Amino acid sequence: MTSSAKAKYLQIADDLATQIRSGALKPGTPVPSETELMTRYSVASGTVRKAVAELRAAQLIETHHGRGSFVRSRPPVQRKSSDRFRRAHRKAGKAAYLAEAEQSGGTPSVNVLYVGPVDAPAEIAERLNVTTGTKVLARKRRYFRDGIPTEEATSYLPWDVVKDIPEMFAENPGGGGIYARLEEHGHMLAEFVETVKARLATKAEATALALSPGAPVIHLVRSAFSDDGRVVEVCDTTMAADQFVLDYRFPARD
């Protein structure tokens, strides 16, 4: 590609980005069609497609197959901090996601996709210190803020820990969520360990979270330790990367 051709598609992308950020192109509205942009800027279709790809990479627009490209209309960024696991939130009847989403100013909601037994996948089994394929309880949820999906999470819990806690098998485990139920039944939580990775969304993840193809996601896997040192839950979470800031506070050590 010549430098002039590159400069042209970057100019188009900059023009459209300015219109989006100024509000001239409002959230949820369609981006001008390829034909319109070709005429407006006197360029070939390939140049327009590269400009649109730039906007998609910058997370300013999202493309839906068969419908075209639209200005993104996603809720404000939600700060995901270590504060979300405070016992005070559970005692107030708020699970971590709900407490956090409310602090960000959005209206949270949850869609429970599955609750029931599964064979523990290898990575999960390793974290739970059980054999791969061991029966565990899985709780899969999709989380929304202002009606827009922001993350999908599956909790895996040891069967012997949850089998006598009937609320764990209900779609709504009650105020404070599953951590409150664990503590009520003697599994006091002492520590959380999180592993965080950034990668591109799979096709299934992009569909579930209403992302453009190839959009970035945050993949977070958390282990919850009880005060006797046992891992009583592993939560495997995929988050829309543009919707979260990970904010942790921890003590300085010698």
Automatic annotation (TrEMBL):
The keyword 4Fe-4S does not apply. InterPro entries: Bact_HTH_transcr_reg (IPR050679), Chorismate_lyase_/UTRA_dom_sf (IPR028978), Tscrpt_reg_HTH_GntR (IPR000524), UTRA (IPR011663), WH-like_DNA-bd_sf (IPR036388), WH_DNA-bd_sf (IPR036390). Pfam families: GntR (PF00392), UTRA (PF07702). The lineage of its organism: Bacteria, Bacillati, Actinomycetota, Actinomycetes, Kitasatosporales. GO terms for molecular function: DNA binding; DNA-binding transcription factor activity. This is GntR family transcriptional regulator. GO terms for biological process: negative regulation of DNA-templated transcription. CDD domains: WHTH_GntR. The keyword Transcription regulation applies. Keywords: DNA-binding, Transcription, Transcription regulation. Residues 6-74 form the HTH gntR-type domain.
